[in-house]
Amino acid sequence: MTNDSLIRKRAHRWQAALVLLGALGALSACSGESWSDISPNPAGGAGKEEIFGGGVRGLNYSSVAIYSFSVTGPRGMNGGGPNISPAGKNGPSGGGAEMCCIGIPQPWKPDTQLRIEWERDRKPFDYKDRSGLAVLTAMVTVPEYAARTSGFWAIFLPGDRVKVMVADGNANGHNDLNVRPADDDPFIVEGVRDEALTQQALKRFQ
After folding, report:
1. Strand (E) or helix (H) holding 172
2. Which of these ranges, 33-37, 54-58, 92-96, has the smallest mean pLDDT?
3. Higher per-residue confidence, 144 vs 126
4. Which residue from 10, 51, 53, 62 lies 20 to 30 Å from 34 (Cα-Cα)?
5. What are the φ and ψ backbone dihedral angles of 33, each rounded to 5 degrees?
6. Hey, which residues does 56 pair with through a beta bridge?
7. In this structure, what DSSP letter does residue 203 have?
8. What pLDDT shows up at residue 162?
9. In degrees rounded to 5, what are phi and psi of residue 94?
10. Mean pLDDT across the stretch 4-24?
11. How does pLDDT run across 57-66, given as a tens digit for each residue?
12. CA-wise closest residue to 139 among 74, 61, 42, 44
């Protein structure tokens, strides 16, 4: 084998290794279990803003089925979540499946608002009656989160209400995934039926 052939072969191996490393990095960024860190500015400033990737999950405390949900907002906070069954007798459903990915900006900024859209069905097990199907929208405020985060969550409550949060170990008191949000939680918002989107959704069953 000539020297030129050896050089080309080694170059191809390096390129393959770099592609593999890039793919592994992308997968790890989407994991809701991986923590992201940001170091403060040594001079005491806010530091440079960074966007970290995170998984999107949901919890459902209501008796309706959530077929899908999505959020759109500033600073890369765009993503969608999985299908979630109605809550059971022992607590909320969901929490396991996640979808990739959403941007989680650091540092958190006050009054960060997102538009959330979700499709719910009050009669998910009645395949002849689709009167319970609707697409709802709302503007939600993201509670403060810490520098160490572990994914984005949407929490669905009875009465077509919803809350969103970035999981951070409940460092700031607003992001406890182990406790159902109180009815007077200031971050809970009631959804509004979007008639045009609802009619589009109903066409799937015609």
Report:
1. none
2. 33-37
3. 144
4. 62
5. -90, -15
6. 99, 152
7. G
8. 98
9. 90, -165
10. 38
11. 999 999 999 9
12. 74
